[in-house]
Specification:
With about 230 residues, this protein is mainly alpha-helical. About 80% of the residues lie in helices and about 0% in strands. Helix 5 (about 85-110) runs antiparallel to helix 6 (about 115-140) and helix 6 (about 115-140) packs parallel to helix 8.
Length: about 230
């Protein structure tokens, strides 16, 4: 459901984001500048308000700032260029933003002596980083890991729902959202590891078959097959 909502919301927001992106490009603003500005906004919302328990205000600031993910992407597409440094910067800033969001929530709960909720936020931070790392490492090895229940968009949606529940005084609303996110993130890690394992197995099998076809596998093992 979260994936469906994210796709629908992106389609609707694109009508607003694309003209804004075009205007920024005409003003000579670069996609990288927008990426950094969005991260600064997330840091301001998280560290300035979430650490003080003002979750709804923090949520509004963080949500607006996170829209820069769509904005810088639209700018890059309109420029018609592919920038590897831009992709690296975007991914790095995403990790910084995630750390600020969940770290701030954990800090708030720790300051209130609510250690169980603090642990949930820290586990969200840990598992979210692992989810992203598995994908990045898989792509570095020439494979893909674009699967899983809780990708970054879904994680932000869930913590956003938790922030709203907290802001409107729903008992344990944020905690429930955090623990659900931990569960979904662990499942996502398993899904991505399994997906990469199958790819690695198929690649190894194809390489073994290719070596056998060219005679590279001759030797003791080949002798045993011959007998």
């Amino acid at each position: 459901m979260a994936k469906i909502l994210s796709v629908v919301s992106k389609a609707g927001l694109a009508r607003i984001v694309n003209p804004v992106a075009a205007a920024l490009l005409r003003a000579k603003v670069t996609p990288n500048a927008v990426t950094v500005a969005g991260t600064v906004g997330v840091l301001a919302g998280s560290l300035g308000f979430a650490t003080r328990g003002h979750m709804v205000i923090a949520l509004v600031i963080v949500t607006v700032s996170c829209l820069t993910d769509m904005l810088d992407g639209s700018m890059a597409r309109q420029l018609g260029v592919s920038n590897k440094f831009g992709a690296l910067l975007d991914s790095t800033m995403d990790r910084v933003s995630d750390g600020a969001i969940f770290g701030s929530v954990a800090f708030w709960y720790a300051s209130q002596g609510q250690l169980r909720e603090c642990a949930a936020a820290l586990l969200c931070l840990l598992t979210g980083q692992v989810v992203s790392y598995v994908k990045a490492r898989a792509e570095g090895l020439g494979m893909t890991a674009n699967v899983g229940l809780a990708e970054r968009t879904e994680r932000l949606i869930l913590v956003g729902i938790g922030g709203l529940l907290f802001g409107f005084g729903v008992p344990h609303g944020m905690e429930a959202a955090l623990w659900l996110l931990v569960l979904l993130s662990v499942i996502t890690i398993g899904q991505r590891m399994s997906h990469v394992y199958r790819q690695a197995r198929d690649i190894a099998a194809a390489e073994s078959a290719a070596q056998g076809a060219t005679g590279d596998g001759a030797g003791p093992a080949g002798d045993r097959v011959a007998r």
